[in-house]
Amino acid sequence: MSPPQTTLGQVTTKDYRGVAIHTYNAPEEGLYVASQIVETADGLVVFDAVFHVKHAEELANYIAGLGKPVNRIVLSHIHPDHWSGLGVLHARFPKAPIYAFPEIIAYIRKNGQKILDARNEAFGPVVAKTPTLPDHDLAVGEATIGGVRFEFERQPDGESDWQSIVRLPVAGVVMAFDLVFPPETHLFTVANYYDHWVEILRGLKGDAAKGYDTLMIGRGKPVGFDVIESNIAYLHKAKELHAANSTAESYAEALKGAYPGYYGGGWVDFSSLLLYKIINP
């Protein structure tokens, strides 16, 4: 069965050393948020659910068109642009368990409705009205699903309070989600975790020496490990500018001034409101 053509988002499909992975990217209005679909011997493992409901519906159509059961859905971190669409996926694939680390589930349980109320006000009625909670705790460590080996790592204090890193050793793939951003793109500095985020990125750089060659990221197509150094440099500059600026507006303008050619100036304005607690959470 051939998957349907997408008209809103874009899908990149590639064989990674015998493991087929489909990357669905929402369009610009959906912040280019990515969902990864890993094909296993007996089904699919889906990572993240995008932001806008209509893009989640297109993602669900694409998944259904692959003609394999969804064996599990995994949520990477606490930010709603990756879990707003979970309700759509759950409705389409009700037998698929939804996994996340316990800290991520607890965060969404506590803050999810407040977050969606605020995002509906900010973005309009394009995102979910109510949160869909993951129903299974994700465990740190190795798991073999449908013959594919996954390694799950939990990290605090990076791009968000809690996030996942997922390695597929046979495929040579590391799913870093929003811990890594594409080249010449503003990072989402929504919390004062600059130093530990850099530490996480330095750890990820070490994966290249272990035979990994592809990074799957939270928005945009897969990239190589060469982007990590520019992400680290950006975080050093952002930390410096945060220390020098007392308001969200001045911080955002300073960052945009430091990187005038970078994509995502509007992201900087919004993320700065979160960083300076104007929007909380």
Automatic annotation (TrEMBL):
Family the UniProt entry places it in: Belongs to the metallo-beta-lactamase superfamily. Class-B beta-lactamase family.
Origin: domain of life: Bacteria
A Pfam match: Lactamase_B
Domain Metallo-beta-lactamase: 32-221
Lineage of producing organism: Bacteria, Pseudomonadati, Pseudomonadota, Alphaproteobacteria, Hyphomicrobiales
Gene3D superfamilies documented for this protein: Ribonuclease Z/Hydroxyacylglutathione hydrolase-like
Protein's organism: Nitrobacter vulgaris
SUPFAM superfamilies: Metallo-hydrolase/oxidoreductase (SSF56281)
One GO BP: antibiotic catabolic process
SMART domains assigned: Lactamase_B
Descriptive protein name: Metallo-beta-lactamase domain-containing protein
